[in-house]
Structure formats: C-alpha cells, structure tokens
Design a protein that fits this description.
This is Large ribosomal subunit protein uL6. Part of the 50S ribosomal subunit. Pfam families: Ribosomal_L6. This protein binds to the 23S rRNA, and is important in its secondary structure. It is located near the subunit interface in the base of the L7/L12 stalk, and near the tRNA binding site of the peptidyltransferase center. The protein is of the alpha+beta class. It has two domains: about 70 residues, Ribosomal protein L6 (Outer Surface Protein A, domain 3); about 80 residues, Ribosomal protein L6 (Outer Surface Protein A, domain 3, Alpha-Beta Complex). The protein is about 20% helix and about 35% strand. The chain contains two helices and 13 strands. The strands form four sheets. The protein has a four-stranded antiparallel β-sheet, with helices on one face. Strands 1-6-5 form a three-stranded antiparallel β-sheet, with helices on one face. Strands 2-3-4 form a three-stranded antiparallel β-sheet, with helices on one face. β8 and β9 form a beta hairpin. The N and C termini lie far apart (about 60 Å).
C-alpha cells in the first residue's frame, strides 16, 4: 500500500466535506474547492470525522494514483483553512513592482511596463517595491501564477537580477575572462 495514501485525512472543525460519487467538495472559512478523483480511487468518510482514500487493487496505476489523490484532497483542506502563499523578490537596478488595483505592474528592464492580472481566487500583496506575494486557496493555481510571474524575468546567473522566489539560491557563474 502507498504509505502516503493509507494515512487518514483529518477534517478540522469548520470544514464541510461533501462526497458525491468521484467528486469531492470542500468548504471552509476561506472558500470552497472541488476536485474529481481519478477512476480507480474511492474516498470514504470515516466514523471519527476523517477521510480515507481507498484503492480497489494493487495495479501499478492504482498505486500511483492512491497517494496523489490523498495529497490533493489534503491540500484542498489546508487551502480552505489556512490558504497558500508564495513570496517573491525582485533584484536589479530599476526593477520594481507596484499594485494597480487587484493587478500588478512590473518594471523589469523592458521598454514597457508589464501588467499581470489576478486570476479568479488569487490575490497579490505588495510589501515593498521589490517584494510581493501571491495568495490563494488553490495550491496549484498559486504556484502556477508565481511561476508565470517569475518567468517574466528569470534570475540572471551572472548578475543575479530578476524575479526569484524568497529564499531561492541563484547559482552564480563567473563572467568571461578578459585578456
């Protein structure tokens, strides 16, 4: 059995989980999320208020989806209770970010400012002109938006300029040797 998949999922107070066939809906203080579980996997409510992810057989695909399904449902519960945050930093001369309503406007050394619109369920917080965060209840969407913003100007290995995650270590390269 999958070591992760066989662990029960604790459902905290204030979170409502509804199972309708293969569809799992989770409602909490921060919002609601819905996920459809892959075909061979089943989810059942335990008598002690937990959720159990079950697989019908030991086929390779069932084993692979067992732990994945359990983690996705557990991430939904965490999202509606605590939410997810990805913090990013900008380094470089003249590089900065400003909040324009619910959108972000970046100056990243291009000839024009870049405006990033907040997708549904995502909020941006600007702490300073070089630090901001992406927040939301869906872990995948938060990570995807943060990765798309980082892609606007990836950190340069020579001067370490660009958009990077907080705590990310940029591997530096030595410049071209002169004569």
């Amino acid at each position: 059995m999958s070591r992760i998949g066989k662990l029960p999922i604790a459902v905290p107070a204030g979170v409502d989980v509804t199972i309708d066939g293969r569809t799992v809906s989770v409602k909490g203080p921060k919002g609601s999320l819905t996920h459809t579980v892959a075909a061979p996997i089943d989810i059942a409510k335990g008598e002690d208020g937990t959720l159990q992810v079950l697989r019908p057989n030991d086929e390779r695909q069932s084993k692979a989806l067992h732990g994945l399904s359990r983690t996705l449902v557990a991430n939904m519960i965490t999202g509606v209770t605590q939410g997810y945050v990805k913090k990013l930093e900008i380094s470089g001369v003249g590089y900065r970010v400003t909040a324009k309503g619910s959108n972000l406007e970046f100056a990243l050394g291009y000839s024009h400012p870049i405006v990033v619109e907040a997708p549904e369920g995502i909020t941006f917080k600007v702490e300073s002109p070089t630090r901001f965060s992406v927040e939301g209840i869906d872990k995948q969407k938060v990570g995807e938006v943060a990765a798309n913003i980082r892609k606007l100007r990836k950190p340069d290995p020579y001067k370490a300029k660009g958009v990077k995650y907080e705590g990310e270590v940029i591997r530096r390269k030595v410049g071209k040797a002169g004569k």
